[in-house]
Amino acid sequence: QVQLVESGGGLVQAGGSLRLSCAVSERTFSSYDMGWFRQAPGKEREFVTAITWSGGRTYHADSVRGRFTISRDNAKNTVYLQMNSLKPEDTAVYYCAAHRRSTAWGPRVDYDYWGQGTQVTVSS
Fold this sequence. Notes:
Strand content: over 45%
Structural class: mainly beta
Number of helices: 0
Distance between the termini: 40 Å
Number of strands: 11
Order of helices and strands: EEEEEEEEEEE
Radius of gyration: 13 Å
Largest sheet: 7 strands, mixed
Shape: globular
């Protein structure tokens, strides 16, 4: 069973930054494309960003493009989400997810494993 553990969430003022990390307990971490999703209170979970297994390609939702950056370190089995210029509407529980490498990736594939989530709260 692959386990994903997010960290780095917290409370930040609007305009501030946070860096989330997701540690993956899988020695074949490079076999997975990775994604970040978020869910705000009373809303459905939404896609935030994804990165291919090699880190060579990334995709961001329009709402975060230019502010958030996904990256990964395959030697550390970790994927990161750097969040800058945070807004109150970014407040949500953030989840990382792993998708076994295939021809498709990004927001519309079915992710195989999920973390437990980390809370991000942006105050105005």
